[in-house]
Amino acid sequence: MSTDSEADGFIIWGADENAYGPVELPALIDWLQDDRVTPETWIYSQKDKRWQEASKLPELQIIFGKRKHPPGSASNPAAASAVNTGGLRRVKILAALTEDQLVKFTRFMEFVEVRQWADVVQSGQIGDAMYLILEGELRVRIMVNGKEKILATLTPGEFCGEISLFDHGPRSADVVANMDSKLLKISASAFDRLIVEAPELAAPIVHAIGKTLVARIRADNKRLQADNQFRKASAPAES
User: Fold this and answer.
1) Whole-number Cα distances in Å, 48 to 8, 10, 40, 64, 209
2) How open is the CA angle 58-61-64, to the nearest 5 degrees?
3) pLDDT band at 154, cuts 50/70/90?
4) Strand ranges inside the chain, DSSP E
5) Strands 138-144 and 174-177, how do they pair?
6) Any idea where the domains of the chain sit in the sequence?
7) The model scores a pTM over 0.85
8) Which of 7, 25, 61, 112 can bridge 75 by disulfide, Cβ–Cβ 3.0-4.6 Å?
9) How many whole angstroms separate alpha carbon 226 and alpha carbon 73?
10) CA 187 – CA 110 distance, rounded (Å)
11) Model pLDDT for residues 207-226, shown as the tens digit of each residue
12) What are phi and psi of 113, to 5 degrees?
């Protein structure tokens, strides 16, 4: 038989598309304070027997009402202070950093909100920043004969534009927001300052970026090999 606390518990639908819980209200509030639960997180109330977004849950509305929200437009360096370390740990290349390192890292970043369908970067632009995805979804695309070809879809924890930190050449593709998104922007100049002022912090970040780039190159190579094998198999036999 279920206890009263279990009957009044909550199940959280995580960003990894797994359900967690049930947990009691104090634990749910702790997750909220750690930024593991956002206003858009879906939560199942065992008492009400229904799913709803966290911001609409009566037990949490008073907490969300007290929160200050960052400006709803373009980049705002001062808004970086609104991103806590719990939110930063969603970004894969920052996951191994200590609490002190994450706090120090906030001095070098900007918080950016991008509306749905807006360009984050455009092909041909001179690259001057890298973007880390906190919330939302981006697509990387190129235009071929007037038609869009999607190269990748990026979700929270992933990043784009990293090459511009090392090579300030033109962007090779567009990056467009599939939905309203919250990003962290690391400009090339801020990254240069990071290397000089906090090399102990820059080193693990560069290492993590390098590992991700290697994984992407290997995946691209496997796709090219598969495409070549398919073309050879599909080619008409010589008579």
Assistant:
1) 8, 10, 18, 20, 44
2) 160
3) very high
4) 10-13, 19-23, 42-45, 50-53, 110-114, 119-121, 129-135, 138-144, 147-154, 159-160, 174-177, 181-187
5) antiparallel
6) 4-66, 77-226
7) no
8) 112
9) 43
10) 8
11) 888 887 777 778 777 777 77
12) -110, 130
Top-level CATH class of 77-226?
Answer: mainly beta
> Is pLDDT above 50 for 70?
no
Mean pLDDT of the chain: 79
Long-range pairs for 162-167: beta carbons < 8 A, 24 or more residues apart: 162/130, 162/209, 162/212, 162/213, 163/127, 164/127, 164/128, 164/129, 164/130, 164/188, 165/130, 165/191, 165/209, 167/127
Q: Quote the radius of gyration of the chain (alpha carbons, Å).
A: 21
